[in-house]
Each structure stands twice: as structure tokens, then as C-alpha cells.
User: Fold this.
Amino acid sequence: MPRRPQPGARDRILDAAGALFYARGVRAVGMSEVVEAAGCGKNLVYSHFPTKVDLVAAYLERFSARRERATERAVAEETRPAAQVVALVAEVARRVSAPGFRGCALRNHLTEFPNADDAASRVARGYLRDSRARLAALVDGLGVADPAGVTERIWLVLDGFYAGATRSADAAVGRTAVRLVEEIIERATPDLPPTGWSGQS
Amino acid sequence: MPRRPQPGARDRILDAAGALFYARGVRAVGMSEVVEAAGCGKNLVYSHFPTKVDLVAAYLERFSARRERATERAVAEETRPAAQVVALVAEVARRVSAPGFRGCALRNHLTEFPNADDAASRVARGYLRDSRARLAALVDGLGVADPAGVTERIWLVLDGFYAGATRSADAAVGRTAVRLVEEIIERATPDLPPTGWSGQS
DNA sequence: GTCTATAATGGGATAGAC
DNA sequence: GTCTATCCCATTATAGAC
Assistant:
């Protein structure tokens, strides 16, 4: 009598593998360890993910999707474009100060495999590309004179803040990043009234 | 008749190993590859560096020392504290836009081995600590009201810029980073005359 | 006594077979 | 699930060359 395939198996494997990969790095975690942590047989893992690269790519894809959902939700809570950009940065700041934070899994992967061109690395590079494109789209809504320049300045702070934060940081650093982006926006839109996001203009 | 010990052996090994480690990551490069690239026998490598960790630590130490020398030289070319801080950022910007740039070896190492506590990781963490301390010392010379806060803002841009730049970037990004730091300094010292570092105030 | 070349050791990796 | 094939890893041991 054959067993019915458990519906949540793929997710449980991905949960276990993702936690290990994120905490210790992809290369440091062997497939045997993933199998053990998933609490299932080896064949099940390999039937869902034929190679380790496939498993890593799925892990990064899920990470990427969750990040996109979280930022989109944060942005959707604001209506004015300037507040949306700030909300985006604030969301990253919250994440960085959360316990268990170990950096951005996608950036970490590109550092761990600088020359790879497999499915996993393509996911990571695609995320960074899309992430910057979404910021550019938000900045376009600001109606500033030089949207490309303002995007580059904000991206420098946001991407740098995210890339430089490799473990859980205290919230003050995040507030500093938010404040820096606020000032970039204020400088680019000097004719706007004071916004009151975080204090005096 | 015994051979004379070759004086430059250690440096040649470190050159070869460093180039490989920097370009492809530490874990991706095996000792056999280091031996082959160094063009010497295996025992010679192990006589100079008893373990791979020792070799990596020496590689990071040399990287760190060179970075410190380069930044100190750049800072020494200026006399006014504000110009010194800007020179520090500009030096990093130059490096990031140089061909063959693959990120900061010390930050890369901490990403590759997030949980390690060996000699190599201590070198990397020590470099980051000292690097920030040197910035703080420079900012102290600015005489601003809140040196700790200004240090944190500049460090966020500088460290983030360096950490986020994982390959050779065009010089425009570096100029943006320099400009951001200039603005941070200008905001913190509003009573100073225009500086003319890179344009109108 | 210093170096090179090569073999051997012991462990752990991915992956496939059954 | 266990067992196995194949490979690569860091490291050590051995034996020969200058």
C-alpha cells in the first residue's frame, strides 16, 4: 500500500534547508545535513530538488519573493510618493534590526559564489536588478528634476545599508539610514512643505 | 651541497594565493591550486603556512595593511579635517572603480565564514573595528556638535558603499558617495564657509 | 638542509542505486 | 533509509634532486 505524498513536504524541506543556508552559508551546509534537518529521507529531497543548486535556487527564490512582498506591503501603506520611498527604507531598517538577521541572503550568495552563473546566482542577480528598478519607479513618482541621480543616491544608502549590515544591528543604525534618505529627498524637492516624518526639517 | 633558502618564497606564495582567494573566494580555492599557482612544492607552502587558515590570515593581514596605508596616504595629503574625511571616501571610491575590484576582501571573508572565530576572521573583524575608529578620530577633528552621530552617518555611507560594491563599478557611483559625505559634513557644520570640493554649496 | 614531486591518509562532499 | 561510487579536500609522509 503506497504512501500518499505529503503535501507540505517541499515546504518543510525548504524551511529546514533555508534556515541552515542562511545561518551558516550555502557551502558550509551539506546535503546530508539538510536531509537530517528536514526529517525525511534522502530520496524525497532529491525528488523535489534534483541537485543542490536547484535547492539553493528555490531557497533564494522564496527569500526574494518574501522580501518583495514585505516591501510592497510597506510601500502600499503610504500614499504620497516621498512617504513611500521612506517606508521602503524603514522596512529594510526594521528587518536589519530583527533578531537572527544575518544579512541579505541574495547578496550573501553573490559574495559566496562570485563567478557562478547557475540558476541560484541568476535569482540573486535578478532580485538586485528588480529591487533597484522598483526604487527607480517610486522615485519617478517624486517628480524631481533628476530622477536617475536621486535614485542612485538613495540606492547607494539603501543597498549599502543592507549590504553592510551582516548581522542584527541596533535600531539606531536603521533610523540613521532612514534619516539620510529623508534628507536626500528633501534636498531634491526643496519646494515641498516640511513633511514631519521624523522631526524638524 | 645545500640549497640556499629562496628569500622571496613567502611573498610569492602569498601573491599567488591572494590573487586566487580574492578572485574566487577562499572556500573555492584548494591548497593544491595554491601550490600550482605559486610554482613551488607543496611542502614549502606548508612550511611557511602550517594550515590554510594561517595562509588566509596572512592574506587578509596583508590586504588590511595595504588598505590602511592607502587611506592614510590619501588622508595625509589634506590638512583641513573636513577635506581629510572626504579624501578618505574618495580613496575608497577610486579603489572601487579600479579594474579587477571584487569587493573588500575582509568583508567578503566575514560573509563567507559568518560563524568562524579563527585567526583569519579575527583579522577581518579587527580591520573593520579599526577602520571605523580611524573615521571617528577624523570626525573628532571636525569639531561638530555630535561627533558620534556624524561618524555613524558617514560610516553608513562609506561602509555601505564599500560593502555594496562587489565588483568594479563606474566612477559615477564613487562620486555620488563622495558627494553624500560632503553633504553630511556641510549639514553638520553649517557655519563653515563654502568649501568648493566639488561644486557649489 | 632546502626544495620538488608524488603517494598516501582520512574525511566529507554530491549524487545515484536499490 | 542505507549503502555505495566517485571525487575533492587539507594535511602528512616518503623519496629523490640540488
Q: What stands out?
A: DSSP finds nine helices and no strands in chain B.
